[in-house]
Amino acid sequence: MEILISTYKRLLNNINTDFIRYIHxxxxxxxxxxxIVGARGIGKTTLLLQHIKLYDDIxxxxxxxxxxxxxxxxxxxxxxxxxxQNGGEKIYIDEIHKYKNWSREIKNIYDEIPNLNIxxxxxxxxxxxxxxxxLSRRKLQYYMYGLSFREYLExxxxxxxxxxxxxxxxxxxxxxxxxxxxxxxxxxYLQEGYYPFFKEKGYLEKLRNVINQTIEVDIPQFANMSxxxxxxxxxxxxxxxxxxxxxxxxxxxxxxxxxxxxxxRDILFFLEKAGIISQIRNDTGGIKLLxxxxxxxxxxxxxxxxxxxxxxxxGNIRETFFYSVMKVTKDVFASKxxxxxxxxxxxxxxxxxxxxxxxxxxxxxxxxxxxxxxGTANIIPLWAFGLTY
Length: 389
Hints:
Elements lengths: L1 H12 L19 E6 L5 H12 L5 E5 L10 H10 L4 E5 L7 H11 L4 E7 L16 E5 L4 H9 L8 H5 L11 H11 L10 H21 L3 H16 L7 H7 L4 H13 L3 E5 L11 E6 L2 H7 L6 H13 L5 E3 L5 E3 L2 E6 L14 E5 L9 E3 L8
Parallel strand pairs: 1-4, 1-5, 2-3, 3-4, 10-11, 11-12
Antiparallel strand pairs: 6-7, 8-9, 9-10
Helix pairs in contact: 3-4, 7-12, 8-12, 10-11
């Protein structure tokens, strides 16, 4: 245990707290059981360490990685009990999905050590585990997304912009230091700004490694996939990344990949849960998950640049951005008359020359344009939607 404590304090000494993700203020940190889930590389580890450094008594808190060699000879419960008996109050467990039968041990810790708070992070497909204990009545779970354009600006150049409400964006009530040229910065963000490690050298290559680990390790771990299925999963992702956008024909793709329709739907589901793709559904009585899938896109624009072997399609990039940021705070559907529908509003997304013909007869309709700095009336700059979280 002494080695775990030494590692924990060394990590704390090296953590930077200059920039804190938006989700930190949304979390009820004093709840007894907290789960923070999200795609690989999204910044979950950093968030935990920052919180401990800024708000906890470091001597009554402990941070551990679930795949630490310590757990080859000791259990999580054993560690938690020993830590509690020595004055511990909060235990933070990172990448919990790497620990076998993790949910049962978390339940035991929660039930049998009632004065110990437990905070853990895990893969965004963590809730698909089907052989563990049900923690739903005990935990508060938060989903962590990638950087918004607003967060990217603060992290990149310390440009601080308040979170904008949806209504403020629609009315073009936007606060921005325009001397910093929003369009130029926005296009940089589209290529290399969604994941917090964007400042590191070889960003796109590291992002490709994240994709590979997700496909080869994370998804198979939860879906019990064979090597052959993993290969087909990769083929499907290649097809999606080359399409503009991908309108799923399940029967055709199933035949092309020699898979059943049900297996194809499962693969799309796993890719979506893992934060690699998004499935845009139509509005079926306002129930998002029951709607028919109209389009399949990559989860965020950085994935497009990481996977592309040639020039990316800017139309697809724009739609991907709009959906990826708006789904964080809103239910977004495919529209019957334009690109997207949110609440009672519809949105047509395009470049600066995009016209209003398609939405001319529609109510509450907006044209969302790339390559413009200012909006007017029902025309809104695309980048402005990146200020909503």
